[in-house]
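Pipeline run #58 for the internal structure catalog. This entry was flagged by the ingest filter as a single-chain record with no existing model, so it goes straight to prediction. Upstream metadata was stripped on purpose; only the residue string is passed forward. Reviewer on rotation: M.T. Logging verbosity set to normal.
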Amino acid sequence: MSDRTPTRTRRTVRRRKAAGERRTASAVSPAEKPYTAVPGAGPRRFLRAALARIPLPLRGLRPRLLTSFVLVAMASSLGTGALAFREARTGVLQQSQDSVINQFRISVDAVAPSIPIAPDQADLQSAVDQVLYANRSSGWRIMATYGGHRAYAPSAGFVEPSPEMLRSVRERRVAVFQRRNVDGRPRLVVGMPVTYTWGEGLETRLSGLVMYLEVPQTTEEGYVEAMVTGIERATLVALCLAVVLALLAASGVLRPVRALRRATRRMAAGHLDVRLDVTGSDELADLSQSFNETAAELERTVRELRRLEAQGRRFVADVSHELRTPLAAMSAVTDVLDLEREGETGEALRLISEGTNRLSGLVNDLMEISRFDAGAAELHRDEIDLAESVRRTVASRWRPEQVETQLPGPGELRARVDPRRLDVVTANLIGNALRHGAPPVRLTMEVRVDGAGMAWAVIEVSDNGPGIAEEAMPHIFERFYKASTSRARSESSGLGLAITAENVRLHGGRIRAANLPRGGAVFTVELPLHRDGTGTGTEADGGTR
């Protein structure tokens, strides 16, 4: 009886998650099921949901760069470690498996000639004892089967092969193996059929005798655990290096970004001459260069606009000044002629006088606006009785039935203001109410204290007119703005409320317009006072805007 050299069957090694069992595809348990994909949200939706849970301070560029570097390093380290572990583990187990199978084959070949063609129980026991004796120091356990006979060496402890392995060994002429986990210890089980040659053609046939080997793989498992420990340490070192490299890279990337942020803030504060140092030739260098070019163009444009604006202000001031002298002479002449006007000549003189006065007022308003634009408007403060000053303004321009006043008593409300500008504010508000509203106009003055404990002198001017249109409300204090185009040829120049607002802001005050529920418009002026009731302001006496 002869034996054909058996060869091992390669099977895909799987790692069972629960029991740690590793075996070939020839011995896969029917209970083992393949993995299935779990349906869920797409990657973009998952990423957005994950980012939404991140606190706001951690969404900065530095944390994101650091996280990206660490994740990439972690993925690279784990991927490299997993591949290295798989290859090393496969190599260790493959080498051990080849050595065991070859040794087992040699042992079986040595005893096969002494086994009868139809062995009984005693023959099987003798065969397994011989194989075990030849490998007594290897911790082997041997089992032989033939028909209904089975023999073991040693007599107890052999783990029965799975039914799939028993069937595979009976049907094949090559060795079959599987790895199993018994009581938490890895073991290799090898099944080797004994064949013989038949006839003149030396046809190989199965003898029906099968030898099984069970050998512990504790040493190999130790090698694998040592590899896992080494890979874990290498991964930890790689992650630490990745964090250090990420910090260095993030600092290098964020340095020009921080410089760009500082430059942008300085530009927003009005420093248009700010520039960035351009180093390198990457995208950040291109961004810095683009910023410098944008800043230079913006500075040039703003400089040109300021030059044109200064020319415009100077032109208005010069024209107003040049017009003021002849207008003064014309006004004086028309005042004299008004005393002697009669008939058609008198009517013509009246029209000339009205036009001259209106033109003179427009020129004066333009000169005042030009002073505000040039920053040359000055405050000449004096401590006065606000109520008495407003009372004189009203009495010198309008009849009592036109304006109703409700003012504090003499000496009750004193403040440091510019009397001339207060007169302009009061006169413009009352004149505007009389032109666009309906008399009588009501003027009130009182002291109010806000939530911060700041005292304000509050002047309110209201009328009985139709009020201000909602679309005109945001533009009511703009220059040359007229709420109705039908009043384009009225006495109003469109500068009165703008000059009023500038005078109020020059005092550090506030002005606003609104409509009353009962009808009519109301303008409110608030001038700041000291806590003791005396006036204060944002400008020093005689200061400029």
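catalog note: Confidence is low (pLDDT under 50) at residues 1-41, 485-490, 536-545.
catalog note: Residues 283-338 form the longest helix (56 residues).
status: ready for reviewer M.T.
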